[in-house]
Amino acid sequence: MRTKPCLTLEDANRAIAAAKSEAAKNQWAVAIAVVDDSGVLLHLERMDGATAATPETAALKARTAAFSRSPTKTAEDMVKDRPSLISLPGRVPVQGGLPIFYHGECVGAIGVSGVKSQQDEQVAQAGLAGI
Prior knowledge:
Low-confidence stretches: none
Largest sheet: 4 strands, antiparallel
CATH class: Alpha Beta
Number of domains: 1
CATH architecture: 2-Layer Sandwich
Mean pLDDT: 95
């Protein structure tokens, strides 16, 4: 049987804290979600001022990145050539979700929603750096 690495709650907490710091530095009100490699939510935070839709969108971005093992920006770009990809259930092909890799294996993902898509990804990148 194979042993595989996985995210811990402490990892998720560090990612959220680093992402929140980046968002606060830029005065961005966002929601941040961290999921495991199967897309199951580990931690979600909605900052003060973030709209009601942001938590679900952040979680879907994280889930999409975990499922695809690639940034959601890649999925967004693919939809331009294959619009039918937008209909895949439980996924959102919008920039702002990044997979989390450890020793070459995807162990989860982080998703951010609340500002422009490239800014969401900037916050998510800060979260990755926090792990």
